[in-house]
Prior knowledge:
By secondary structure, the chain is α/β, with parallel strands linked by helices. The chain is 29% helix and 15% strand.
Amino acid sequence: MAAENLKWWQKTIVYQIYPKSFADTTGSGTGDLNGITKHLDYLKNLGVGAIWLTPIYPSPMVDNGYDISDYMGIDPSYGTMADFEKLIAESDKRNIKIVMDLVYNHSSDKNSWFLESKSSKNNPKADWYIWRDGKPDGSAPTNWRSIFGGSAWTYCEERKQFYLHTFAPAQPDLNWENPEVRQALFDAANFWLDKGVGGFRIDAITYIKKPSEFKDGKPDGKDGMSGIHNLTANTAGILDFLHEFKQKVFIGHDIFTVGEANGVAPEDLNKWVGKDGVFDMVFEFSHMNLPLKNGEIWCRPTEWKLSELKKVLSDSQAATKNNGWCPVFFENHDQPRSVNHFFDKNADKIKAAKAMATILLTLRGTPFIYEGQELGCTNVAWNSIEQYNDISSHGQYDFAIKEGFTKEQAMEFVHFFSRDNARTPMQWNDSKNAGFSTGTPWLFVNENYKTVNAENEEKNPDSVLSWYKKLSKFRSENLELTAGDYKLLLPDDEKIFAFSRSLEKNSLITVVNFSTEPAELPKEFSNKKILIDSESQPEKNLLKPLEARILRN
Ligand code: NOJ
């Protein structure tokens, strides 16, 4: 791709903030907008050009903001609209854009739209959500299991009908077939554009189109239900809604859009992010889902090999090579920490974090860093399910117990997959609560904050944070890494992940040993110049465990 045609968001790094856990300036125990403003220079120094905020709108917080009760406000726990405007203004000064999260598949059940919709069968918003009569025996309209566990239908006494929720009962699905619903959602997005936001991440967007007929799916658990994802994600016709969204909201603005597209296969990517696609980028999840190849059920994890990780990443790189662009990401607020997710459990976490960073910042696409990833943050493992806040951890735990696992086994799944792994408070320094809050944090701090924290790592040239900064600078100085073509090398090697990025006559090669054993480097790599290495004394023909290297071809 010609370097001069790249847009600003293709040349930058995006940082994802989970506002509840980032920085608390009031002592409430919950992060807030002023906490983000306070740390903008930290992000600037990392080379960040845009910040994606997970939802900050008024919400009962059943799913920490992914249940919105007012699409045009700020939740008081995060501050005020004036705080938001200040955040935009201060970010602008540093050339950083603020990206909002649009949760448009569903609202909160406390949203006035839903309260009206559920009040009767003939109110003006009666058709704004997805209502159905039960089966003749009074049971739910279908056997669909929601993503958080339990039936995807909840009965409403007032209407004597069921409503559909892909996620929790407190998150009723909006009816996108109704043009008034679409217009209300588009109006809200335009409201935030008027405030000066630099883009949108669009939540759970592959679920907005429902099948024309609602039929039972094949049971896939002892509960007799069938996971909703396989039955409703990416239903034909969805792109019509999204083209309308693009025309009425996105077009003509210097912003980027990134859809959460679980269920879109690499071969379909062009329709989503190609020249005539609907978004600028989508999150494609094949690599994140490797341990869950059998669906989203945590108690059925699957083994995977490095060659598979390389293949799925390369498939999406190939699918967008000449037409389209994607984010590169290995963490977000729904996923385990990448050092636990992608490496042997005994791997040295600092080395693993550097290895992951090297892939993240040299693949083709816009790198998304999730808060704390740049410090090498790790998973937690609390003793009992009651200590977990994440709604899906509870659903998955209950499901595992029903499937016949012991409590200890069910907790092991939670320890690995829980979304709370990524939601623990940001580790700023080694003072009380990791410097996140002077009050009682809403979620336990990871105990390793005494050593894994920003202040410590800023002082240490060998820290994960210093490695991120070094790579971020290197990326901004080497156009091959933004505009260059991607080619996978050594596809079948089960230890080394290697690829090249080439632009005209220039080529860089990334080589990372993903294993906890040394790995011999084939001859063709040993005569190249080492530009960057995670080890202080690299050997030409050998990679130490988890060593990461960038070579000049
Ligand atoms: C995906 C979000 O990333 C996740 O946190 C949320 O629970 C679901 N969508 C439902 O909105």
